[in-house]
Amino acid sequence: MLKRRTFMAAAAACMLMTPVAHAEYKAEYTVSTVLPSAFPWGQAADKWVELVKERSAGRINMKIYSNAQLVSGDQTKEFSAMRSGLIDMAVGSTINWSPQVSELNLFSLPFLMPDHTAIDAITQGEAGKAVFAAIEKRGVTPLAWGENGFRQLSNSKLKIDKPADLEGLKIRVVGSPLFQDTFTALGANPTQMSWADAKPALTTGAVDGQENPISVFDVARIDQVGQTHLTRWGYMADPLVFAVSTRVWRQFSPEDQQLLKQAAIDAGKWEIEKSRAELDATLAKIKERGVEVTELTPEQHAAFVDATQSVYEKWAPRIGEELVKQAQDAVANRK
Ligand code: X2X
């Protein structure tokens, strides 16, 4: 009897000690996005899911929940939900995660990145690594970059080609308070709301304008809610980050971690190329629908840069002076 008990205890101890190496995988991993499959953003997530399914021969199943529905539409809560493991994975915008990861405000600094090469110089260089380290420190494992795109300003009232045109305009923004500061510096009246609330607010005229990449303007048919003026000022671009809650990440075998990461890198590259390649055609489509598209001369552009300098002074210390400098150098030295 005693012997048996000893054996049982030993067996139990043994079981406890055996590392739960790679726990049973979940039947399904949730992937959060804001924009669904009709948009490049949703397509980036679709591609990731598809590549992982294919390369794991169906062992790893991911299911996309768009419109930030896992956080009841409040996209600025997505990061916290992933960190706590309520959401397993996400393809998210740096804007939406910036309230929790201050370093992500880097990409929102007005006019930091003049072109696509500048975005790549940051994301693919040392600054990009530092940003990923900052995400990792907060309990989320970043795997790869994607792209929502350069954000352009639309409104229902007037052609905007100088800061004074924004005077008193109600502009919908999302993300950290940095956006309030940018639009306040320009004399506008910014108001924060989720994507879910944005279109209704534009429809009723509760706000006069918004800012989003032209792919979003096009697919969401923002022109149909009275947004007939679009200024291509490219004041910032929001990269997308493919990421996994670190709690969930640890449950995957090293081989599967590598598989998930490589699939995210491949999906991100594919989506970035595709969305950039579609830009001209999308812009032409928007013009055809009667939207007045304004391009800025170098002088007009400079006036917006000057008017938003205070945002750097206030936000560089919060983002990290060194990171901002690293990013500025990467942009200056881009090929
Ligand atoms: O809400 C937006 O403007 C959107 C869809 O672009 C983001 O999620 C940042």
Automatic annotation (TrEMBL):
Manganese found in the keyword field: no
Gene Ontology terms describing biological process: transmembrane transport
Cellular compartments per GO CC: outer membrane-bounded periplasmic space
Extent of the signal sequence: 1-23
Gene3D superfamilies hit by this protein: Bacterial extracellular solute-binding protein, family 7 (3.40.190.170)
Keyword annotations from UniProtKB, A to Z: Signal, Transport
Keyword Nucleotide-binding: no
Family to which the UniProt record says this protein belongs: Belongs to the bacterial solute-binding protein 7 family.
Protein's name in the database: TRAP transporter substrate-binding protein DctP
Organism of origin: Marinobacterium marinum
